[in-house]
Design brief:
This protein has 409 residues and is of the alpha/beta class. It folds into 2 domains: 199 residues, Rossmann fold (3-Layer(aba) Sandwich); 150 residues, 3-Layer(aba) Sandwich (Rossmann fold). It has 13 helices and 16 strands. It has a 6-stranded mixed sheet with strand order 2-3-1-4-5-6, with helices on both faces. A 4-stranded parallel sheet has the order 8-7-9-10, with helices on both faces. A hairpin with a 2-residue loop joins β2 and β3. The N and C termini lie far apart (77 Å).
């Protein structure tokens, strides 16, 4: 009798242990287990860092609008991939690196995002890069362009859909640089401007041009008189301008009559608001990242039509397609991983991944995760009914032509 009782107690204990182990296994599976993929029914979260106030406010808003459109396009309006909803949270960096770090930390710790996207400023982005590595989360860089992001400051969690300064430089040099041409440069005095000039100088000198003067202005400056006078004194054939932000130098360049002094102007065509300040530069040849009439593909057609519907007839601007592309890249990667957000699987999936964008096919180069992409050689022309100079296509520069050097070795 005692042996029977002991046997029954033993069997009950075995049953309890098995039930407990089963419950633990079930709990571990629901929490994502060791694969880091998250609950299969949990939403995938994306944190978007953008300048929604300050000098780059327009860029930030374009990126956010584009991201939302891209999410709709890539998921056929469901905002869902592999049965998991995609949510995004937008934070304003105020174009201040210290604020960008605070907001990124909040997104990573409190909101527990699976991806970061951003930001409008290269300075903000460079400050946030180490957090992506520390928290082991993919960061899609858009639209910041400093070469160092995928160069000296690169880490394996960084993928960039934005073009970089070297890609801009290759396109800009192709427009004006040749043997015997003397070129001066004007740029803001921070990473975006200095990286841009460094890359342009390398590309232009390879084509035989001479850089006779480099001028750097305070990025918050509104008076460029002394900067422009130094450029005039250098007597270049061309002034190549690298600029971003609302405080552009175009009015003073026109007021100081550089073109009448025999100095031709060249630059990357900016967003529509800045184009309205470039009326004296009609006929200028340069390049652009995007203008809504230039790409010829179904993704851009959808973007232009849908943007007009949602934003009172307005066309997508310079950085809208970049925001869209960052969303498309995330969704395409998640389709390939079947919704798994394990970071190592995502990195392996995204390295070398090609995907369609409003600018045509892009590919994340495996070596540095820079998206290879088309840029556009353009001429500014007057167009009836448009109150700013319109970028007109000279020719599309292919991803192979604009491929920048690998700088993260």
């Amino acid at each position: 009798m005692k042996r029977t009782t002991r046997n029954m107690l033993f069997l009950l204990m075995v049953a309890f242990v098995m039930a407990f182990a089963s419950a633990c296994t079930s709990s571990d599976t629901n929490s994502g287990g060791s694969d880091g993929g998250g609950k299969s029914d949990e939403p995938i979260k994306v944190g978007v860092l953008a300048s929604l106030t300050g000098g780059l406010e327009a860029y930030g808003k374009q990126t956010v609008n584009g991201f939302e459109l891209g999410l709709d396009y890539a998921t056929d309006g469901t905002q869902e991939v592999a049965g998991r909803k995609i949510e995004f949270i937008v934070e304003d960096t105020e174009t201040k690196p210290e604020v960008a770090v605070q907001k990124a930390t909040k997104l990573l710790e409190e909101d527990e995002v699976d991806f970061l996207v951003g930001s409008s400023s290269s300075g903000d982005t460079l400050a946030v890069l180490p957090l992506a590595e520390e928290y082991e989360k993919i960061m899609i860089v858009e639209p910041a362009v400093a070469d160092s992001i995928t160069g000296s400051e690169f880490n394996p969690y960084i993928f960039r859909t934005a073009r970089n300064s070297s890609q801009d430089a290759i396109a800009g040099a192709a427009a004006i640089a040749k043997k015997g041409v003397k070129i001066a440069t004007l740029a803001p005095d921070y990473s975006f401007g200095r990286d841009g000039v460094k890359a342009f100088k390398e590309a232009a000198t390879k084509l035989g041009a001479e850089i006779v003067h480099e001028e750097y202005a305070d990025q918050k400056a509104t008076d460029f008189t002394s900067n422009i006078q130094k450029i005039i004194d250098a007597k270049p054939d061309y002034l190549f301008v690298v600029w971003a932000g609302a405080n552009s130098p175009w009015n003073q360049i026109a007021d100081m009559k550089l073109q009448e002094k025999g100095i031709k102007i060249s630059t990357g065509a900016p967003d529509i608001a800045a184009l309205s300040l470039m009326k004296p530069l009609v006929g200028m040849e340069g390049f652009t990242v995007y203008y809504h009439t230039l790409p010829d593909n179904k993704v851009n057609d959808w973007l232009v039509e849908e943007h007009k519907k949602r934003f009172k007839g307005e066309v997508p601007d310079l950085f809208t397609p970049g925001g869209m592309t960052s969303a498309i890249a995330i969704v395409e990667a998640l389709k390939k991983t079947e919704g798994n957000t394990d970071v190592q699987q995502l990195i392996e999936t995204m390295e070398g991944m090609s995907f369609e964008s409003p600018k045509g096919k892009m590919t994340f180069r495996p070596e540095d995760h820079q998206a290879l992409q088309a840029l556009y050689a353009i001429r500014l022309e007057k167009k009836e009914g448009v109150d700013y100079p319109v970028p007109v296509l000279i020719r599309e520069l292919t991803p192979e032509e604009t491929a920048p050097p690998i700088l993260n070795k």
